[in-house]
Input
Amino acid sequence: MADATVTANDAGFAELIGNDTPVLVDFWAEWCGPCKMMEGPLNELAGEKAGSLTVAKLNVDDNPQTAMTYEVMSIPTMILFKGGQEQKRFVGARSKGQLETELADYVG
Output
């Protein structure tokens, strides 16, 4: 399966999350084992929810400013944004089913 997630960075972050479509941002790093475990579930979710949810990945090592702005202290941290505002935050690895349950109120 091709990667359905988008890559986020410090420069375009405000534009990315300013959408009316919910955006789930995965704050991750290459060296983080639990972050690697999230790749499959997030990619599946991105493919299945295309059009109603954008899934973005932001490497905290390459983009420290955004991680500091949103006070990301542990990774993986996933933050759901809508219209530029934080709606929900998850810290730690989750299964695809857990993610779907936690996002159900925000994503159709």
User: Anything to note?
Assistant: Strands lie at 6-7, 23-28, 54-59, 77-82, 85-91. The chain has one domain: 6-103. Residues 33-48 form the longest helix (16 residues).
